[in-house]
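Exam revision sheet. Question 4 asks you to relate a sequence to its structure. Input first:
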Amino acid sequence: MAWERLNVKTNCGHFKTTAIANMKKILVVGGAGYIGGLTTDMLINQGFEVTVLDKLLYENRFLKPCNFIYADIRGTSALVKIAKKFDQVIWLAAIVGDGACAQNPDLADEINSQSVSRFLEKTQRRIIFTSTCSVYGAQNGLISETGKTHPLSVYAATKLAAEKTVLKYKGLVFRLGTLFGLGDNYSRIRLDLVVNILTLRAIRDNKLTVYGGNQWRPVIAVRDVAGYLCEGVVNNVSGVFNVNYKNMKIVDLALEVKGQFPKVTLETTQMNFEDLRNYRVDNSKIRKYFRFRPMTCVGEEVVKMAKVIMEHRIKNVEDNVYYNTHQVRSLLVNHEIEYN
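Answer key, structure tokens:
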């Protein structure tokens, strides 16, 4: 298929890729989710024909004005047939997070790893796949993509296993840092991510408590992840890429949040948090191969989230749907996720 692209630098420093030749058909697997929502919007705005495939485990409806297929990624035969109609596949669907995967490790492996492998073994095609920097576990120093992996959770282990199959077929793997910020206007916000939950606690409790706080995390706004995914559609590069905006300590993230709420008190304690992850990642490789540059700072998204929360645009911030672990546990208890 003939394909051209035009990269236009926007006033915020990002590169917008505009389709100027044949429209390319994109399948976004898991496109109704936190990352998928913005990614779908950006792709549509750039002139692509986008179809979202999703099981809606976190949503009761999908009203976005784009093509939609309701399906389970574990249905390999059906998914293979569907994918033949598309030029590119972005694979976002997964059980995400340490706690969520711990609810049923076998299910997490089936969804996060086995479904990907089955699909690729049958199609042998390149996909764009989101993994996690959690595969690095706890390490000192700046870690590049060739550094040792040391997954400390089922989540990280299943993602790392899936990576191997994606790379076998020359796919593109984004190892994402810890996300923060608002997604699109349709998909749910996640309130179980460190910056987002700190923002909620600052508003709700007028106090922030940080346990330990010296753990490092690479962080990146969800909208900037979407920017990389969109460039991945027209950039034929393959391999593994670390994706982050900045490496920050947990305590410094708390200070960023507190900076938007002068009356909020910040308390630190030496008691270690149960999450043992601690890593900083090197993003020089992605800067070499991609033109997109993440520019969304923590404070900018904290302000946006604060407005949503303070105006009560989220009716119940304790609802399970905003917390992956709680939602997956609820789905399992209510037998809303089938598992053999």
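Marking note for examiners. DSSP finds eleven helices and 16 strands in the chain.
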